[in-house]
Amino acid sequence: MVCQLYEYHYIKELKTWTEAQQYCREKHTDLATVSNMTDMKRLLCNSAGNMKEAWIGLYDQRDAKRTWHWSLPGVEFIESEKNWADDEPNNKGTDGQNCGIIWKSDLLSLKWGDISCNERYPFFCYNDNDTSNKLHFVREEKTWLKAQSYCREKYTDLVSGPKQLQKEHIKEGLTFGDIQQKYIFIGLFSDTWRWSDENSSSFRHWNLEFNNQIINSGQCAMVVFDDGGRWRNENCTVKKPFICYDESNVILIKQNKTWAEALSYCREHHHDLVTITSPTEQRSVQQSVKFASTPFVWMGLSYACTLDLWFWVSDEVVSYENWGQRGQMDECDMSGAMDAGGSHQWFKKMYTERFNFVCLEKRCR
């Protein structure tokens, strides 16, 4: 198995965020995505010399609807599992309400509400490594960002997701008589920030004074190395150095095989012939096929003439497409190949032709 890690590249040229994005997509995979604290530490550990700050691939959309996330990376916010109280979230107030709370007086139902992230409340941390006491109540009142930082330093994170936020995890005998506030922060937040490569990661590492009430700002994110790697928002038109990344769980096999032989080889020695379902995956494969010894390379795309449809061998739906000319009729003995040069578009080829091919490695979970 090949574990998937981001390989970061520190580019000292000064570019706007959009120019940096274009550069990274042409020469690497994309502007840097940071998916968790492990990525963040690697990014800081390998930071380039005297770079004080640099663009990363996070940007704030002007017209997007805010999206709810859990603070702990990997815990997905699932609509069917939401547990909002009546009339919540209501986003009241002039500065918006983008962070989640529960009510001190209602620990039986643990219903959620939204509140300003800049208010100060006690909070629940979650410790994934403590089998006897998962939830830790912190009485000290902090803003949501500072509560998150505290939990990440001392435990795992702010309590995130319905499976963590259960009354069974609340320590018996816990009392709140001396707590003046009626709300308790949990690891729920909403924003309009998105990653350039369309990654859905909820990981954020903002400067602790960052006003994350601001949404739809149209600004972009940068990492500030002399601030412990914390992130700040900045006008996207300012020119700065930037960080690209390469992510690849694909491998080019420079052997000439028919499509069926290539499929068999990938499944025996790796995982499968490659599937491409997004522009990011397309760019990742492009980085490999540039070194092919044949004009085309096989992908895991084939045509089922009985159903009159193209399909990926991984059973993924063909939702993203990058076809070149498709003049000829689809035939039963056709499969999909990528142009190894030029714009790397897809072409229909007879499956008996012999090309290099791209295998997909298994990802570590």
From TrEMBL:
CDD domains: CLECT. Pfam families: Lectin_C. InterPro entries: C-type_lectin-like, C-type_lectin-like/link_sf, C-type_lectin_CS, CTDL_fold. Keywords: Disulfide bond. Residues 8-126, 121-245, 244-360 form the C-type lectin domain. This is C-type lectin domain-containing protein. It comes from Cyprinodon variegatus (Sheepshead minnow).
